[in-house]
Amino acid sequence: MSIDDSVTVRDGAEPHGFTIDRRRRWPWVIVVVVVVAAITAVVLIARSGGAASPNETAGATLDVVYLDSNPAEKRIIEFIADEVAPDYGVQVGAVGLGDSTQINQAISDGRYAGTIFQHQHWLRQVLDANPSFREEPATGPFFHWVFGIWSDKYRTPQDIPDGATISLLADPANNAQGIWYLAQAGLITVRPDADITALTQKDIVGNPKNLTFTLLDFGAQPRALPDLDAVVGYAESFLAAGVSEDKLIFAPKSPDEFASVLTIGSDYADTENVRNLVEAFKDPRVQTFIATDPEVKKLALPGDPQ
User: Fold this and answer.
1) Is the pLDDT of residue 179 over 50?
2) Which pLDDT score is estimated for 5?
3) Staple 92 to which of 78, 85, 183, 227, CB 3.0 to 4.6 Å?
4) pLDDT of residue 4
5) What is the domain range of residue 95?
């Protein structure tokens, strides 16, 4: 028979003729707590690979990635780490990597705090190709890469002859930038209403010298320079390959749309560490350094990150 909700009588179970079992409800509370903790742990592991991101850890070093072929980017980050970041309560490290997708994935998942190696349209290409990545620009134009028309044969764009062959970069964003440069040099005309960030050869409405275009990647452009009439690309590629600076025959400052931005992982944008990091990168001393450091200004020009 049952005595109450917490007592049960079992006939014949013991010499007394019954046993009393007290039903304790607290073990179920423990089970619920354990389950909730396990679910929380799974979420954290999925997000951070089993460990808290430095972005979320007080006093952690926040690594910012530069493209390992660009020494100017490295010098900028190291200047911020030594001279600026301590004033904002953060520690900054510089990490060089060479693979764009690897860099963006590492920013997205919080392994690294940010990167300055790309403009926002390159970032958009990567995000479109990798929808699971969560990354966003955190500044305006941080700096402008030195970019322009290179030639081993001619001293000015006007010297480039009829029927010349010119290389543009193969990726869509930098291909668009190259077309913009050729238009600025007066070699071609593009539709006046065209979006400069999405220019293609279809937007060329005037080509008075009947130029022919060939698409190459970053590493191939310097090697192809002797065989082409001109190449439109980044100074870092050519100087790293030992090409003389005087082969750069046309190099106005790029439009803001093609300037470097500091990008960060979207999931960490509101952490105190990352907010302080962004403010350090916006510090005016950084732009002065970019404008005056003799090694940096070979590859980068000041921007307006505010």
Assistant:
1) yes
2) 43
3) 85
4) 43
5) 59-144+258-302
